[in-house]
Amino acid sequence: MPNMSFLRGLNRALGDEMERDPAVCVFGEDIGVAVSNVTIGLLKRFGPERVVDMPISEQGFTSVATGAAMAGARPVIEFQIPSLLYLVFEQIANQAHKFSLMTGGQLKVPVTYLLPSSGSRTGWAGQHSDHPYSLFAHVGIKTVVPATPTDAYGLMITAIRDDDPVIVFAPAGAVAQREDVDYDTLGPVPLGVGRLHRQGTDVTVVAVGHLVHDAIAVADELADTISVEVFDPRSLYPFDWDGLAASLERTGRLVVIDDSNRTCGIGGEILATAAEEMRLTAPPKRVTRPDGAVLPFARSLDLAVQPSRAQLRTAIEAVVKN
Amino acid sequence: MADSTELYRCVRLIRRFEERAIAMVRSGVIPGGIHPYIGQEAIAAGVCGALRSDDIITSTHRGHGHVLAKGADPIRMLAELAGRETGLNRGRGGSMHAADVGVGIYGANAIVGAAAAIATGAAWWQRRAGNDRVAVTFFGDGAVNQGVLLEALNLASLWHAPVLFICENNGFATTMRVNESTAGSITGRAEAFGIPAETVDGMDPEVVLAAASAAVDRARAGDGPTFLECLTYRFDAHHTWEHVARPRYRTADEVAAGTVRDPVEIQGERVPEPVRAEIDAEIEALLDEAERFTADSPEPDPAGALDYLYADGLRGRAGVS
Ligand SMILES: Cc1ncc(C[n+]2csc(CCOP(=O)(O)OP(=O)(O)O)c2C)c(N)n1
């Protein structure tokens, strides 16, 4: 069976969709030579009309994609750095996202925004290490954070076919993942459907993106004493609330691990919704970056800010004790 | 291409639509207020007179004139301003977002400068798809200092996109004078990117039509974008709120001088009096009907407040319940 990497999953999804639908095109900086690896081979296959190397002009080309989408294109934009999303927040949150409602359903904006390496990249420091998915989920933009190569493939396909703007965050901590896959069985993964990576009876850990792998590792470590269920929502907006409720029916206890800042992060939303609507037999906990965090440069400091396995383990033990 | 009579009908329709809309803001039928286009009608009429119905426009907060000139139904437009379910956008957009995709109107846009890149993208895709449709983006003098607009000029020029950049220089961005906001020249911004730019009399519909037609021909021929700076004057307030807030930023003498040349009069003189009278009467009857239609139209059902939020029909969870 072929061994597919996470980035190859994204690459394959792009290639398959470009093959299937001539309206799909890719915008981005240095995508012709594929500096991020995601667009490898696409320029040769589809030509510069569909793999469009852009000048450093994010606000311009983000709204160019919006206009092209209104006129019938299905653009995918690759952003080199997650914090560039702050630069184009207006173009995504205030323009692309709003046209469907503001025009009373006359216009749709099927653009996909791809962040092929989001979160800490070790040594990239303050302006290159953010993981701003919670911001977009808050706005209501369809937001997906795959954790595995197959999910990267399947969610990317779905994002491109979706008639609304969708952001795909590929966590830097997950892009090294590889999986043996049978290409014939690869398919789209719907938005709003989570995935149980591991079943358990004592506590549900909701883990986002690369932290799914940490959660599985911690669950393995604790296997002799605590039975941990690992739930990966895969898309943060829409969120699989039914899947979470079903898991909490089994476990009644909840820990969330989420690589975004604590205040108004998706972790807080998950805890609040579980507290309002679901079965909880003990107070829940979340493991996140600190409030207002900016990732410091030095390796030790960078790691100190990111949610860790040790913190997760402590949180699980505390919740289960209750 | 529009003839003299059609241009007159257009500027007159916009003028009377605006005057009635201002009255409807005062009487409370139109919530929130509007940005009157009075005085600038020649630009919308001249530019849209050079377009086909399948060409595309994007507009601004001061967008009624563009939307009407491009061919949106004035009756459903007025209902939109009043937030009715029968409006162009089903009451979801209002004055600053009016759109009618069926006649190429991709919406007025309330963020200054934002729409230029959207029009550039639409134009780029049309050309890629093998169509000869062009796109036009309207914006004020205040928008020429926005980064995204300058980025759009660069991309449009690089790609020879069939897009017209129409700057309506009415001398003010709200209360700020153009010479206090804008270093260098307005046309110089376009010229810096290799885009041909021209300054024209924006009070005369036929002058604007001629310039826009030449630009449309260039765009359709594959020769890329054109930038037109249309010199004009805003006769009325920046926004209807101005009558309440009364900011002082131009003198009565200045306004009197600015309104000496009136696009409706300029074009009216080119149309025989009986024809003009007939058009005026038709427009009044149409706008009477628009007001009646608006009054008779229902407000949207609050249960549908988030309808159309997603093109795929996804619904968000309740906030207040
Ligand atoms: C980016 C942005 N900044 C500020 C505003 C508030 N605002 C609305 S209209 C306006 C003035 C715009 O002036 P100009 O572009 O010259 O157009 P005009 O109103 O004269 O038609 C301002 C500042 C806005 N809507 N968008």
Q: Please state the oligomeric state of the protein chains shown.
A: heterodimer
The gross shape of chain A turns out to be globular
Number of helices of chain A: 13
First-residue to last-residue Cα separation of chain B = 54 Å
What string gives the helices and strands of chain A in order? EHEHEHEHHHEHEHEEEEHEEHEHEHH
**Largest interface (CB < 8 Å):** A-B, 41 and 48 residues
Unique ligands: thiamine diphosphate
Strand order of the largest sheet of chain B: 2-1-3-4-8-7
Count of DSSP strands of chain B:
8
Helix and strand content put the structural class of chain B at: alpha/beta
Largest beta-sheet characterization of chain B: 6 strands, parallel
- Taking all Cα atoms into account, the compactness measure Rg of chain B is 19 Å
Poorly predicted runs of chain A: none
Which percent bin holds the helix content of chain B? 40-55%
Physical arrangement of strands within the biggest beta sheet of chain A: 3-2-4-5-7-6-12
Largest sheet entry of chain A: 7 strands, mixed
Report mean pLDDT of chain B, rounded to a whole number. Answer: 97
List keywords for this structure.
heterodimer; A: 322 residues; alpha/beta; 13 helices; 38% helix; 20% strand; globular; B: 321 residues; six-stranded parallel beta sheet; two-stranded antiparallel sheet; 8 strands; 11% strand; binds thiamine diphosphate
Give an overview of the whole structure.
The complex is a heterodimer of chains A (322) and B (321). Chain A is an alpha/beta fold. Chain A contains 13 helices and 14 strands. In chain A, helix 1 runs parallel beside helix 8, helix 3 (58-70) runs parallel beside helix 5 and helix 9 crosses helix 13 (309-321). The model of chain A has no long low-confidence stretch (mean pLDDT 97). Chain B is globular. In chain B, the strands form two sheets. Chain B has a six-stranded parallel sheet with strand order 2-1-3-4-8-7, with helices on both faces. The mean pLDDT of chain B is 97. In chain B, strand 3, helix 6 (147-158) and strand 4 (163-169) form a beta-alpha-beta unit. Chain B is of the alpha/beta class and 321 residues long. The chains are: A alpha/beta (322), B alpha/beta (321). The structure holds thiamine diphosphate. Residues 61-62, 110-112, 139-143, 170, 172-174, 238 of chain B line the site of thiamine diphosphate.
